[in-house]
Amino acid sequence: CFGYDAVAAKITQLISENGIVCMDGNSAADFGRMVKNVSNCAAPKKIKYEAVCVDDIFKDSKTLHKELEYFLPENLEDDPAQIFGKIYNKPYHSLYDEAKLAELLKKLESAKKNGEKILLYGHGAASEDFQKLADKILFLDITNKVMFERIRGGAYTAMGDKEGLSTGLQFRKLGLALKY
To answer: What is the pLDDT of residues 40-59, one digit of tens each?
Structure first.
């Protein structure tokens, strides 16, 4: 629990003073826990906002796995330890379902126009598609130890994964270098 309450209070303040706050972060960061703490801080202060998880707009796990195969080849002859990959040189939004992205952008544009408050959080919340709409951008970081514990404990899944990949594959996808 170290630090979560103080950070949640600051995020709550930023939401109250701004329209759209984007919270991106370490791939294995516990966004859900932070969003819950922010909600607990905002409720007694009667700060009204909507929390929107950007993870919901990723392409499905099978599609992402196929599209990322070139960047994370599963070739045991050339890479028996499965530790090498290639830099993902496509725009971040190529990981998103196009229709869901368009719908979310429309929602954010409307919220901005109408002065509504939104906390957009999750993997890619600070990517190029959302930066132009953001009033504040935050990065939720964690230590490597916490990251490894979350992966090994099954508390983290790779972007777009709803089915639960093996721990080894989770670590490989975590190491995929994304270009913002």
So the answer is: 999 999 999 999 999 899 99
